[in-house]
User: Fold this.
Amino acid sequence: MAPTVLVNERPLGQGVVLGHITLNAEATLNSLSLEMIDLIQAALDRWRSRADIIAIFFDAAGSKAFSAGGDIQNLYHDMQATPGGPCIYCEAFFEREYRLDFDLHQYPKPTLAWGHGIVMGGGLGIFSACQFRIATEKTRMAMPEVTIGLFPDAGATYTFSRMDPAWAYFLALTGAQISGADAQHIGMADSLIQHELKEDCLTALAALDPSRSLSPQISEILSRLQADSTDLPEPQLPNYEAIIRPSIESALLSRNPIKALAASTQNWPAGPFLDRAKSGFLKGSAITAAIIIEQFKRAQSQDLLAMFKMELTIAVACSRQGEFTEGVRALLIEKDGQPQWRFELGEVPNEVVQSHFEHHWPVHPMADLSVSK
Assistant:
């Protein structure tokens, strides 16, 4: 059986090497399993102190997805087996996934992610943590956790905190999918390059001069490849900004942002993109929506590590409280599309929301980590 992660070293000349990590679970759209997370972390740990490894390149097998998310089915079965928790597999999965993403955010060598196809959930966590985030003409990006009763995680707190709040709240609350062009437009991707130029990118990286600063050289390579790309899509979000921005901004000023946004969506004009976004929000988990409001509020005063600690606290609560289990059942297991959410939008009691932010341990499992200076 082929390994779920391919770890290779590509000689670049002058005695230096590119670390190359390929997600290799094409049958599951390269969704991250705990095994895959551990294999990636082990490679990064081996390469961290090796002077000859000068940069890391992430891509994925197949043409459909960089990674569609996380190992939802195994998480579901663990939650089903241990209702109310502790959910041993879930907690191990979330902790090691977030540790990996936190490590990537601070990795001491340049990291590049080639985000072709679907880039969602945990896959977006790896993509977003890399220094150079490359989208293609086929990229489809989203954080759709509102549809399954989870929350935007794997470092999404940090990603969204650095964006225009109107787009951050819109994407988090609706789970809307966007193109690579839109991802670049709002700052979720750095470059937009034709997928057929990936090998050209790797060839260009082989000419890196290790005696000079690497990041400016990589930026120049990616800029040149974007200029060489043809038939790239145009961003579409600007076409909807006059509708989305006032809805989000006025909702956030109200006493009940979720109810206000639900009312505002009734005035959105019909059309495929807005209809899907509206449906994702109105049919999504009210608890998730309420968590997002609190999550983003708390993030305003947090550093990177505090955000990841908060995410682990929320994730463990989600694994124990049942909403996540029900959302996965309805969308991915029984596929009836009829989740029995606990509350209506905008009617989640504050004590339920706050319970997702209460620590479950005497000492937080990520207490040993620190933010690099």
About this structure: Residues 88-105 form the longest helix (18 residues). The chain has one domain: 5-355.
